[in-house]
Every structure is written in structure tokens, then in C-alpha cells.
What does this fold into?
Amino acid sequence: MNKEGIEKVRKPSVSVICPVFNAQNEILDFDRSLKKQKGVRLTDVIYVLTESSDHTEDVMKAAGIPYKKIKRYAFSHSLVREKAGMSARGRILVFLTQDVEIRDENFLAKLVAPIVKGEVQAAYAKQETKYNNIEKYTRAHNYPNKSFIVSKADIERRGLKTFFFSDAAGAIDASVFRRLKGYDGKELPISEDMYFAYKLIMHGGKIKYVADAVVYHSHDFKLSELYDRYKLTGEFMRQNPEIAEHGVNSAGGGMAKSVLVGAIKDKNLRVLGGYVPNMAVRYAGMTRGKGLGKRGIRNKTSSDKEVERQRGRAHVFMRRGVR
It folds into this structure.
């Protein structure tokens, strides 16, 4: 075997899965950053393009970037990723969103290393923001500077945080993803990453947060967008009580406290001025979402109109890369 063949054997095979929507200003840089990656063998990059209102498809065609196109009504955060994950050829599945910025040529190698070594079955990256807004502090809370591994043994101590995982920049052992049947064929408008993480942990698996695998993932949400996001999350928690019972309120309260402490320390007047309405909107959205089922507004037998409404909201969050 020649040197090139030996290197291919040594490098872990990776499949990147990325839903794409209205990404004409992002997709070229994103694709280039993948092609620059070292230390892994990219067996396939699966772009699933939802029909867009901009020129994303033209840009991808002109650049020779292969993609699979779907209608808007066919998009689902969970089902699109599940279908791609079941057919991908790599040993490790890496899920990314179109708006993450990858600046490190060794990012993928760092992210998948714990899976390659057999330490864990899933891993997720550190997400940082370019903005000096409230997201700076929520990111710091969710993505600290030190790596760690979680398992079922951590549930009592960490509660809901045990199941934190992000497919904005996360990796899963492909064989485990398939053995656990991905997202069980469910159409989840949000939190599909937590849904899978819960299953993995409860089946005895482990997840590693990899602090030295870094992406930049930046938003500046309107209050209305935050409300919609947390309303969807509340609905998810209501539909999955086995996950919610591990402490939704305590997890949210911990984040709120962390944001306030950080903003005070930095004397960040912009964040402090908007802190109360921001947290109030999150709480109101979550409460509304969790309470919908009590009035029969949404359940597993939702009307076609309601399903379309949820898909519309899901597209907003796909475009914004919410995680």
C-alpha cells in the first residue's frame, strides 16, 4: 500500500450533513472551509437544499457543489437529518448548520477524535459569537472553556444539561445513530439534537463536549423570534415529558443567572438594559409552548394547517441556525 493509501486508512471517514436554505451569502465560504479540513477523510458532504427564495441553488450549481433538493413542505429538522444520516457513507456523521464559521483547518479532526478513540459515541463543538450581545453570555454558559464527558451517571447532578447536544456543530458515530434509529421517524420542529442525546445517554452512551473544536455561530434575535423559538421548545418538552422531568426550569434559571452575572462583571449596559424583557420573553414562550396541549391546540394529530405552520417556523430557525 502506498503512502496515500495508508493515510486514507489512518484518517477517520466522515460524512458531513448540512441542511441549506436561503444561503447564497454563506454557502461558498462554508463549503471552502470544509474542503480545507485536515486529519479526516470526507467521504461525502450531503447538502439538503430546501427550495429557497434567493439564488442559493444558482450559486451552488455554478460552483459545482452537489446537493439534494426538497420542497419547502418536505423540510423537517429531524427527518431531513435522519434520512441523510441513514444513507451517509462515513463512519462518523458530522451535523452542521450553514451559518457556522469554521476557521480551524483541524476542526473536524478535533471534533471527531473522542469518537475515533472510543471515548464516546457523540461529541459537540464549542460555539462562540462575534457579537457583544446577550448571546455572548448564553454561549459562555452552554459552551465553557473546559471539555467534559457526560453519561447516565451524571443525570442526578446535571439534570437536563446531561442531554445537551447541538447539531449545529456535532458528531455522532454512524453505527450508533442507525442502531438507535435516529429520531424514530418523528417530525420534530426543534430540539431533535436533545431528543437523540437523551436516547443515547439512556442507552448507556456517552457524549463529549470538545472545547478546542470551535465554530463561530452568531445571532442577534428579535424578541419575537426568541418567543417563537422558546414556544417551540416548550411544545417539545410537553411532548417529551421523559426529558422535561429532568428540570427545564432549573436549567433555564441557571442560564439566566449566568447571563446576569457575566453582564454585570463586564458592565455590558446593552445586555443589562435588555435583560428583563429578553428573559421574560423566553419564559413566556416556554410556558405557552408547554401549556398548549392542555387546551388541545397541538398534539400528535395536528391538522395539516398546523403542521405547515410549524414547518414555516422551523424554516426560520434553520436559516438562523438556531442551536
